[in-house]
Design brief:
The structure holds 2 protein chains of 2 kinds.
Chain A (H helix, E strand, L loop, with lengths): L3 H42 L5 H4 L13 H32 L4 H15 L2 H13 L11 E3 L8 E3 L5 H25 L3 H9 L4 H30 L2 H5 L20 H9 L4 H31 L7
Chain B lengths: L1 H14 L5 H41 L9 H6 L3 E2 L7 E2 L2 H32 L2 H16 L2 H17 L11 H25 L3 H9 L4 H12 L1 H17 L2 H6 L17 H12 L5 H30 L6
Antiparallel strand pairs in B: 1-2
The chains are: A mainly alpha, B mainly alpha.
Chain lengths: 312, 321
């Protein structure tokens, strides 16, 4: 005969155990989903991945189609995006964390940045369409002025039109808030004592930032940058709005080239009813996921290497 | 890292500066100005988004020869058929309802699982397993959304939903909702986990000392203490779900209808914008302009939600020191 208290205890322990199982189940769902996703796509797409697939252009005939144009387009767009968004993100973070005094204005800017990170990417596409592709309609596309001609590698025309440059800038808009927030966290985690040490030795504020804070924060910033870039690589909606072309038969040669990117090509193929194109989409996804895994492992390795805490 | 920073500090002390103090002040000032202008750029971005959307939306509502378009009928109209029939109808509610349906399904899928996983990660998991799980979640977070859309279309609908009931068509709100749920799961997890780990250890120790089980500590101490963070995480994740585009464009269908039936196909606000920008409508036509009004609605909804999230975090944060 168990006492009431013993029953209550065993009930509590039972509840405790059930809760653990619940948590475990929730966790395993996440892993299970990842496995099912990878396996189902690998099964569908594996047979289509070949050198020919990587090295040929889109085609109406599924057997001849490839992803050369979107692959190179993704590379161009992402490089431009990284060149713009990473320095701008770090710069903004430096100002907010090292220069700005605590004030109402700083709070508002901070709130604005977190709001920007919640804006749907397709809305950035609309902004970019107005700002980069059309320059707010200031000059119509007929009488644009340009530098160089369409053959030269430095060719530029204004407005940019749906070009690689416009695409890269669009993605930069999308990931800039993420980049800023990640860099800010990195600067915040640099111990104040390092800065004070440098200041005590007579260095100016910028010297402290350039030679002490930035080197100390850089590994964390780079991890954030890699994760932000992996977001940029997968982004399709804003590029679709600015008119990233769905069928392109050449690789970009200068900043004004037409382009398409891998996610857009995947979207194009996945949206078609024929099963053969679904196979191609799955194959393109495999390529995309491999790139993504490389990025993620780089981030993980970076973090592991540099996990030694700064505070002694 | 310490070594680098310390060496730099010493380096500064040794060499001093080659340039005059006045030059140095000028240099510092100009760098500060440059960084300040970068910071202003974020404000300019917000202003530009709002002005572009407001300008184009104004253009939509004041367009000539379309008396059926008014602000009132746009926001309360229950029929959205801009491309069909002789008399196009612009009532945004079916698009909003489609978005809400998909977001609700995503929330039902992702919020409980995400919170459970976060509790497991912060309260139960040993360090090593935690690292592995975090990596898995990070990979899930990086998977492009178009991949989830493809997954919904080619796996969730034919292999999970259609065997359950044959009322599911090739496009349906359920598969899109589940896929969006999978997409926001890592966001829910990692933000909730941050919130839970920020709860000070002393609270847990106190509860254990009173004889609590792990369940008691997690459910009655840690989660309530981190509640503001958890709610903010939920709101942020739902904002992402509302703004998600490629999944719904692929899997939810293209028929705007006012329904709560998850087996039906629905069109969301974002999916409508994709349809228009992909070139189904002539540029400068009224359908084209209508997409800006839809975008403005979407922007206002997400802006409102993020703002509420920030408010919850600030107002209801429990400070422990």
């Amino acid at each position: 005969m168990m006492s009431g208290r013993a029953i209550a205890t065993s009930r509590r322990l039972l509840k405790n155990r059930l809760f653990l199982y619940g948590c475990l189940a929730g966790t395993s769902i996440a892993i299970l989903v990842l496995c099912v996703l990878m396996i189902s796509i690998a099964i569908e797409g594996w047979s289509s991945v070949s050198w020919h697939f990587l090295d040929s252009f889109a085609s109406r005939k599924p057997a001849q189609a490839g992803i050369k144009a979107p692959l190179m387009g993704s590379v161009w767009v992402c490089v431009i995006c990284a060149l713009v968004a990473i320095p701008m993100g770090i710069g903004t973070a430096i100002y907010l964390e090292e220069f700005a005094k605590h004030s109402r204005i700083k709070r508002l800017i901070q709130l604005n940045i977190s709001n920007l990170s919640g804006v749907p990417s397709i809305v950035y596409g609309i902004l970019a369409l107005a700002a980069f592709v059309r320059f707010f309609g200031i000059s119509s596309s007929d009488d644009h002025w340009s530098i160089g001609d369409s053959e030269s590698f430095f060719y530029l025309h204004f407005p940019f039109g749906p070009s690689v440059l416009a695409g890269g800038l669009t993605l930069a808009l999308v990931i800039l808030p993420i980049m800023i927030i990640a860099s800010q966290e990195a600067f915040r985690s640099v111990p104040q004592s390092l800065r004070q040490g440098a200041l005590a030795l007579g260095s100016t504020q910028w010297q402290v930032i350039w030679r002490v804070s930035l080197p100390a924060a850089l590994p964390t910033i780079m991890t954030g940058a890699i994760l932000a870039m992996s977001r940029a690589i997968g982004e399709a909606a804003p590029l679709l709005v600015i008119g990233g072309f769905l069928l392109v038969f050449h690789t970009p040669t200068n900043l004004m080239s037409d382009f398409t990117v891998l996610p857009l090509q995947i979207f194009n193929w996945a949206g078609r009813p024929q099963g053969e194109f679904h196979k191609l989409a799955a194959a393109a996804i495999l390529v995309q996921l491999v790139v993504l895994l490389v990025f993620n492992s780089a981030a993980i390795i970076l973090r592991h290497k540099l996990q030694k805490p700064l505070q002694s | 890292m310490i070594a680098v920073a310390a060496r730099n500090a010493a380096d500064i002390a040794e060499r001093g500066t080659p340039c005059s103090l006045r030059m140095r002040a000028w240099f510092e000032g100009s760098i500060k100005a440059l960084l300040w202008s970068l910071t202003c750029f974020t404000v300019v971005t917000t202003a530009a988004i709002i002005s572009v959307l407001a300008y184009e939306t104004y253009g939509f509502f004041t367009i000539q020869n379309h008396p059926e378009v008014s602000v009132w009928s746009f926001f309360v109209g229950t029929e959205w058929s801009p491309l069909l029939g002789a008399q196009p109808m612009f009532g945004v509610l079916p698009l909003v309802a489609g978005t809400l349906l998909v977001t609700t399904i995503a929330g039902i899928v992702a919020l409980p699982i995400g919170l459970m996983t976060a509790v497991y990660l912060s309260e139960y998991a040993p360090a090593r397993r935690r690292t592995v799980l975090k990596a898995v979640l990070e990979i899930l977070a990086g998977v492009p959304t178009v991949v989830y859309g493809f997954f919904a279309l080619t796996f969730i609908t034919p292999y999970l939903l259609q065997p359950l009931s044959n009322s599911f068509g090739a496009y349906n709100a359920m598969s899109a909702g589940i896929a969006v749920g999978i997409m926001i799961l890592p966001i829910v997890c990692s933000l909730c986990e941050d919130a839970l780990r920020a709860v000070p250890q002393s609270l847990r120790d106190g509860a254990y000392a009173l004889g609590s089980t792990k369940f008691d500590v997690s459910a009655k101490v840690v989660v309530p203490a981190g509640l503001s963070g958890v709610i903010a995480a939920f709101l942020l994740a739902l904002t992402r779900a509302i703004g998600e585009t490629m999944i719904v464009a692929l899997a939810a269908g293209g028929l705007a209808q006012l329904t709560a039936n998850p087996t039906a196909q629905v069109q969301t606000m974002t999916a409508y914008m994709v349809q228009i920008f992909l070139g189904d409508a002539p540029a400068a036509g009224i359908e084209y302009k209508s997409s800006y009004a839809v975008a403005f609605t979407l922007f206002l909804i997400t802006f409102f939600l993020t703002w509420i999230g920030a408010l919850v975090l600030r107002r209801y944060r429990e400070e422990y020191e």
